[in-house]
Amino acid sequence: MIDVAEPVPGRPYALIHGDGADADALSDETVIALYKAHGAVLLRSFAMDLDGFRRFTGRFCASSVFNESPDRLLLDQAHNIQSVNGGADPFPLHPELSREPWKPDVCFFCCLGAPTRGGETTICDGIEIVRRLPDAVRAGLEARRLLYIQPASRETLAFWLGTPEPSDAALAAPPAHCPYAFFRVKDRIVRAFTRPALHKPMFSDAPAFGNFLLFARYYLGNPSFPALDNGRPVPAEWVEAAKAASDPITAPIAWQRGDLVMIDNSRFMHGRNAITDSHERLIASYFGYLRFALPNPEEPPAPLWRRATFRPPEIRRSSGIGI
């Protein structure tokens, strides 16, 4: 018997208990309604394996993106299903791929190997973070955008501009489908895009905090990426306030084999606790673009990542299969 439990304090996700049922028996309408209302849904005690994970994600997504960050296993090349990072470090909260303009709508994670202890995935509602921010910090963030600047590789330039050595005129007028602005900085070319410091999630009118700031500051130790829209660093007290607001409402998911979690990447952030034995833990991931997505005014018209399985240019460089 399939049982549905709404979120409760300390558990910000809806819980669907399958009692051994196949997830194919769960209606799309039920999952979508819970996802839109709450932003995070955990399926537990369903008969779930890698093939079932592929079928489930395919029910809701029209396309997906390959995550080029390191130390991930490729579990299903055709469908962009990878493992999560295979290290043991704890990770601060972040929305998946928020450092790029093709931030996916949804994150799916499926437990194929459960750790004996540790290694919990953590999640936090970005709407609730904003509600808990000091008024002055919230007002400061509301008025600003975040600027993401990174070097533009030759592969990136060729992919978006059609040549690895673009002229100044080409840099100044990228095609409409390109998500970046390009600039020459001394002897190199950089790519840049901006996003609101606080944004409207896809299925809520309340503002949310969901960006790369916490991961960059507390894991990478990078004080300047992303920056404010004027190029200056985000004030440290703003970042510290966001962390202080998120810490008491960050909830762990203690994995059981077969668990599947579906997270609204426009509303929730996720991270993980330290892993005791990384050889025990195998979590499949899929980062997708929803069939029922609402238009995102921050994206270019008909973005490439919403048309088909998307491989960033740097992945295309490394091999013919995108790994």
Would you identify the CATH H-level superfamily of the largest domain?
Answer: Clavaminate synthase-like
| Fraction of residues in β-strands | 25-35%
Helix-strand pattern: EEHEHEEEEEEHHEHHEEHEHEEEEH
Radius of gyration: 20 Å
Largest sheet entry? 9 strands, mixed
**Total number of strands:** 17
Taking the alpha carbons of the first and last residues, their distance comes to 41 Å
**In which range does the helix fraction lie?**
10-25%
Kindly report the average pLDDT value: 94
The CATH topology label of the largest domain is: Double-stranded beta-helix
Structural class assignment? alpha+beta
CATH class call of the largest domain: Alpha Beta
Count of the domains = 2
In brief:
Helix content is 23%, strand content 26%. The protein has helices at 28-38, 50-60, 126-132, 135-142, 154-161, 168-172, 213-220, 236-246, 313-318, and strands at residues 3-5, 14-17, 40-44, 61-65, 74-76, 81-83, 91-94, 106-113, 121-125, 145-151, 181-185, 188-196, 227-228, 251-253, 260-264, 268-272, 282-290.
Description:
The protein has 323 residues and is an alpha+beta fold. It has helices at 28-38, 50-60, 126-132, 135-142, 154-161, 168-172, 213-220, 236-246, 313-318, and strands at residues 3-5, 14-17, 40-44, 61-65, 74-76, 81-83, 91-94, 106-113, 121-125, 145-151, 181-185, 188-196, 227-228, 251-253, 260-264, 268-272, 282-290.
